[in-house]
Design brief:
Protein name: Protein-tyrosine phosphatase
Number of domains: 1
Number of helices: 12
Structural class: alpha/beta
CATH topology: Protein-Tyrosine Phosphatase, Chain A
Keywords: Hydrolase
Strand order of the largest sheet: 1-2-5-3-4
CATH architecture: Alpha-Beta Complex
Radius of gyration: 18 Å
Pfam families: Y_phosphatase3 (PF13350)
Order of helices and strands: EEHEHEHHHEHHHHHHH
Oligomer: single chain
EC number: 3.1.3.48
Distance between the termini: 22 Å
GO molecular function: protein tyrosine phosphatase activity
Strand content: 5-15%
Number of strands: 5
CATH class: Alpha Beta
Helix content: 40-55%
Length: about 260
């Protein structure tokens, strides 16, 4: 499925499960920010079963590129701000201030790996990720109740959230990693070039670490995140419980994504 104006949109249906078969299509979608949807793209989005859109971006990101959603039918927008992932270090910058070149240079000079960034998300984001699981658990067949989760690129905050939900319902780890890693190919081309040109224009060197952080999806990054969840919580289902997900919610999530 393609929607004009998205570069990293996809349905998570069809992900193989450890018990056999695969996740249900038409329930959980993921994407980059829907800020550049064309009229055709809006019409195409309205034709999907998506009824809930979850935005992980910060207030500054949302102001810079607001969501564009169909006006032809109701779509519920849920904002679950996850600071880690906007850009490492930006969580310490005032929400009302755009960082200058010197601030950005300091931030990029102290870059974590993507794996470290994802662990930071997990440490602070259990409540937000559990809320996404709860929203997906509310899926009702034959109603526009599917959930679309997005951040800016649809690779980091979105990637961690989707990996957690898929892992919690028994998706195969290799398939979760493959879905995560595919974002880099989707973003390659004009989107990546535009991001890198913007970084270079600020005087920030495009080192391999900067390139990976802003446009990459190396498998070892999401593997690191899932390994941390295993070590600290005994798995993704238990991690989501630590964020407030109930057993009834978890069962609803399984029904929605597995059937």
């Amino acid at each position: 499925m393609r929607i004009e104006g998205f570069v990293n949109f996809r349905d998570t249906g069809g992900i193989p499960l450890t018990a056999g078969e695969a996740t249900r299509p038409g329930v959980l979608f993921r994407s980059d920010a829907p800020s550049a949807l064309t009229a055709q793209g809006l019409s195409e989005l309205a034709a999907t079963p998506i009824g809930v859109v979850v935005d992980f971006r910060t207030e500054l990101e949302r102001r810079s590129a607001p969501d564009v959603l169909p006006a032809t039918r109701p779509v519920r927008l849920v904002q679950l701000e996850v600071l880690e992932g906007a850009l490492p270090g930006l969580a310490s910058v005032s929400r009302d201030a755009v960082p200058d070149a010197r601030q950005l240079a300091r931030i990029f000079a102290a870059l974590p790996t993507l794996g470290d960034l994802y662990v930071a998300m997990l440490v602070h984001g259990a409540g937000a990720f559990a809320e996404v699981a709860r929203l997906v658990a509310g899926y009702v067949p034959d109603e526009p109740s599917a959930v679309l989760v997005h951040c800016t690129a649809g690779k980091d905050r979105t990637g961690v959230a989707v990996a957690l939900l898929l892992d919690a319902v028994g998706a195969r780890r290799d398939a979760i990693v493959a879905d995560y890693a595919s974002s880099a190919d989707n973003l390659a081309g004009p989107w990546t070039e535009r991001v890198q040109q913007g970084i270079a224009a600020l005087g920030v060197p495009l080192t391999p670490a900067v390139v990976e952080l802003t446009t990459g999806t190396p498998p070892e990054a999401i593997e690191r995140a899932l390994a941390w969840v295993d070590a600290k919580h005994g798995g993704s289902a238990q991690y989501l419980r630590s964020g407030g997900l109930t057993e009834a919610d978890l069962e609803g999530l399984r029904r929605a994504l597995v059937g």
